[in-house]
Amino acid sequence: MITRKQHEEVIERAGRMLEQAGIAITPEERANFEIADFGLSELEKTGLEIIVYLNTEKCCAKELVMFPGQTCPEHLHPTIGGVAGKEETFRCRWGTVYLYTEGEPTSSPACRPPAGSEPYYKVWREVCLKPGEQFTMYPDTVHWFQSGPEGAIVSEFSTKSRDELDIFTDPRIQRQTVIV
Fold it and tell me: Which pLDDT does position 75 carry in this prediction?
């Protein structure tokens, strides 16, 4: 849960980051920023700021803005009723993002889960993305990601996004942010 004032401040801050990175957005896109606190009310640690450019039956394009050290919690995009889950490619545009996914665990990962949430993070194969680098994840792949110390901006290109159906490892997660 976040307050209306916090919501407005976060949109302003995320907008400044996009501007600094040279990424132009329209006033309508700015007005439609999604602020995801995942129901934990700790946006600086666990959260994500999202602009959806396009989400059709076949494809989706988003901008993910992450404040320094911010984490998107561990989850997967499930196959449901024979419809494949989301396949997504992350392309780092600014800053650094550390993506953790299934596979051989990295011996000394750069990031740690937010304090108090450690039991809900199970995958440790680290992929470090810097500007211009990208990585693709396929449906039903468990993953989470965290920005570096300067934050990050990531373009996401995917098949249809059905984020409301994502399955999170942490049972406390609520996908829809409540604004009071």
Answer: 98
The residue among 107, 79, 84, 96 whose CA lies nearest residue 146 is 96
Tell which residue, 159, 119, 114, has the closest CA to residue 140.
Answer: 159
Distance of CA 171 to the CA centre of its chain: 18
Q: For residue 1, what pLDDT is reported?
A: 87
48: which residues sit within 8 A by CB, 6+ positions away?
Answer: 35, 36, 64, 65, 66, 70, 72
Query: So what's the pLDDT on residue 17?
Result: 97
Question: How many angstroms separate the CA atoms of 85 and 82, rounded?
Answer: 9
Report whether pLDDT(69) > 90.
yes
> Which residue has tokens 């750069």?
110
CB 27 within 8 A of CB 123: no
Residue 176, pLDDT score: 87
Please state the rounded mean pLDDT for residues 163-175: 95
Query: Residue 38 is encoded by which pair of tokens?
Result: 């995942």
Task: List Cβ neighbours of 78 (8 Å cut-off, separation of 6 or more).
Answer: 85, 139, 140, 165, 166, 167
Q: Which two tokens stand for residue 76?
A: 């997967």
